[in-house]
Design a protein that fits this description.
Blueprint (H helix, E strand, L loop, with lengths): L8 E3 L2 H9 L10 H16 L3 H4 L2 H6 L2 H15 L2 E11 L2 E8 L2 E9 L7 E11 L4 H9 L4 E9 L5 E6 L5 E2 L5 H13 L8 E3 L18 E3 H10 L3 H11 L1 H10 L9 H8 L2 H9 L2 H10 L1 H6 L20 E2 L1 H12 L5 H6 L6 H4 L4 E9 L2 E9 L5 E9 L7 H16 L2
Helix pairs in contact: 2-5, 5-18, 6-18, 7-8, 7-9, 7-10, 7-15, 8-9
């Protein structure tokens, strides 16, 4: 919801973005020897942080201070142990490559980009996933159980009936899902279009700006956009202003009804309403104490005031805020069911879900199709995938982790979900 990049973009220059997107070595591309040397030195950087100023370009250091890089490196070491060596290097340009870095207990996939100009310092570093050696569903389940706080996941085979569990842990327990609630909004948009009441090409104007993630909050007020544009930005980059505009266009009661049908909590807040509530202790307390009908009355009665209220992103700069009340809640099984329904929806819904695969290119490349929507804020992370394996079978992998006392380790959790997908691809 607030901009928290699940793929952990440390600093992404255009060169690094191009390298990450390609996923495989371009024909005839050979890594410069300096790139290979910088890649080999990266294990030391990720181990103890030594040589930070000599390794990274000034632009990178401005975006990613040493302390932030140390935090990311510590999360990797907590998950995988000590970095040991570069296991493989696949050049995508002369000055960029996809790396697999071997750790004590697994691997991390990384995109590295260098400045083509001497002294060829690193301008981009992109951690795209982690994996564990000799993995199994039993190991993944045990690692979910070991997460501090509360968590749950489900891996399901999808067919003509309800999702069939392959492995699960607390998959029937509702939990905060952050921006993953936007799947309910997409489902309602698809329903209204299928019923003929709306069309994806319908043009509406952008509503009041929310906080990032997204870009529409920076667009001119009242700019015209289509429903398909709103839905695509809502899912692919989790655009909050697009989400709120789409919810208002579809109708708040309709979105509430679709959320309930999908096993989600109601009433459904817009992102702006959520931010405004979390930034006002009195309103937060009133919301937490109210029943669902009371919450609906609070939401509807204060909508105009909330729409005009300035938003303060600093409320999310510390510990988790009201994640047990001012949130959106659903179980892993409920999220799998809505993904299963959306895979049967008419175009362009499946394509919208596939714009952002949510995993590294190597993992996505092992499937015919990958659809994704996640959500996160301090103390909350939820990831939801629907994939079609190479043999044509369909699966859903959904999971959550939350804790009220501290933030969650996103690398640790995204690694768990990536491991589930890897095990599906290997079936």
């Amino acid at each position: 919801m607030i901009r928290r990049l699940l793929a952990l973009v440390l600093a992404l220059s255009p060169v690094a973005a191009l390298a990450q997107a390609s996923g495989a070595q371009a024909p005839g591309v050979t890594a410069d020897p300096i790139l290979r040397a910088r890649a080999a030195a990266l294990t030391g950087i990720l181990d103890d942080g030594g040589g930070y100023e000599r390794y990274f370009a000034e632009g990178f250091r401005a975006k990613v201070p040493r302390a932030r890089l140390a935090q990311i490196a510590a999360q990797l070491k907590e998950t995988l142990g000590t970095p040991q060596r570069v296991e493989s290097l696949t050049a995508t340009t002369r000055w960029s490559a996809n790396l697999v870095i071997a750790y004590e207990r697994g691997t991390a996939t990384v995109t590295l980009a260098l400045d083509p100009a001497a002294p060829h310092l690193a301008t981009g570093l992109f951690v795209t996933g982690t994996g564990t050696r000799d993995d199994s569903l039993a190991k993944v389940t045990a690692d979910f159980r070991a997460l501090p706080g509360a968590s749950g996941f489900g891996l399901y085979a999808l067919g003509d009936t309800a999702p069939t569990p392959i492995a699960a842990y607390r998959d029937d327990i509702a939990a905060p899902v952050g921006s993953a609630f936007k799947l309910w909004v997409l489902d309602e948009a698809a329903r209204q279009v299928a019923a003929g009441g709306r069309h994806w090409a319908d043009v509406v104007t952008i509503g009041p700006p929310s906080l990032p993630s997204g870009v529409l909050q920076t667009w001119p007020a009242g700019a015209p956009v289509t429903l398909q544009t709103l839905a695509t930005m809502m899912i692919s980059i989790s655009d909050n202003t697009a989400t709120d505009t789409l919810m208002t266009t579809l109708g708040r009661d309709a979105v509430d009804a679709r959320a309930a049908a999908n096993g989600g909590s109601t009433p459904v807040l817009t992102t702006r309403e959520s931010f405004a509530l979390k930034g006002d202790p009195a309103r937060t307390a009133a919301w937490a104490a109210a029943t669902p009908p009371g919450r609906r009355a609070l939401r509807d009665g204060q909508m105009a005031a909330i729409s005009a209220r300035p938003l303060d992103a600093s409320v999310f700069s510390g510990k988790p805020v009201a994640i047990d009340s001012v949130e959106w809640f659903a179980s892993p099984l409920a999220m799998a069911k809505v993904l299963d329904r959306l895979r049967h929806a008419d175009a362009p819904v499946p394509a919208i879900l596939a714009v952002n695969a949510g995993v590294d290119a190597a993992t996505a490349g092992r499937f015919r199709y990958v659809g994704y929507k996640g959500g996160s804020e301090p103390g909350v992370i939820a990831l939801n995938f629907i994939v079609q394996a190479s043999d044509g079978r369909w699966y859903a992998a959904t999971g959550n982790w939350y804790r009220a006392d501290a933030d969650v380790n996103e690398l640790r959790f995204t690694g768990l979900m990536s491991r589930l997908l890897a095990l599906v691809a290997a079936r």
